[in-house]
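Lecture 7, part B: from sequences to assemblies.

Below are the input chains for today's worked example.
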Amino acid sequence: MARYLRYLVPLLLFVLLAGLLYRGLSLDPKIVPSPLIGKPMPSFTLTRLDDPGATISDADLRGKVSVLNVWATWCTSCRAEHEVLLEFARASKVAIYGLNYKDNRADAQRWLRQLGNPYIANAFDADGRTGIDWGVYGAPETFIMDRDGIIRHKHIGPLTSQVLATEILPLIAKLETPE
Amino acid sequence: MIHRIITALALGLLLCCATLQAGVTLESFKFATEQEEQHFKSLIEQLRCLVCQNQSLADSDAELAHDLRAEVYGMMQEGQSDEQIVEFLVDRYGDFVLYNPPVKPSTWLIWFGPFVLLLIAAMLLFRSLRRQQQAPQHDISEAERQRLEKALRDGNPGEGPQS
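Predicted structure of the full complex, as structure tokens:
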């Protein structure tokens, strides 16, 4: 018995270590899980991107399943993501809001005119203060809130068609089914 | 002469780099006292930047690091405590911003794991030392002993092992 143990223990340790390292290979250290999941969305009141005279706040997002997409014209992956957002808006009736993060108002308006506008409305966060409250550390980021305004999911990095089909749309369908 | 010029150039270059470095990391925050400034610096050195993940808020030149430094500065000027400022950041970005992770069930492994390993190693060492002590001192047979003595006496290694 002791004889077998002598070989078995190092083998088990090796398998354990290999397992941990293998898991490490598929983890992206750039993705930091948000502590806001399961918590009410942070409140904000900002001007609308298309109208500096009008405001938009977290109250507009409440009472229904909603999506908040953080983007900016200086963000190259946002451009790659934009096609997917348009696809998203076509595939789902969910309310997609935008948080235009540390951007230039005229540039952002032109972006939407040229590339198409998947958003119901955009909040204009010029100094990034609202971004800090939402724990934004790099655009694009996408939050999904339930009817009670609780953040249920955060996707960090650009949405892809695959992520949309396998994660986002099923979650929205689940949140939208009445209890 | 040339030696001196090279030395002067090297020193000048060093000085340039030093001032440049200071210029990158420190915005023009105004502090009432030297002590307050030191306090601010030591706090932002303990916080981790989310964009350049191996840099502290004090070192990073990322846009977000600038914003968060301004945020920390503003909160300090309002008279908020270090705990309140750290809590503000942890609420938004998670424990990730702390270089010093809090002790809680999900971090027990990193806090106590090394001590558990040390304990296991100490136990193994103790066991193997004990076993060595208990092992019989004389483990050669009488015939072998006689052959050894004969070999030492004669200077003759004798026959080889009987196989």
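Note for the exam: Helices of chain B lie at 2-25, 34-45, 63-77, 82-93, 108-134, 142-154. Keep this in mind when comparing with the next example.
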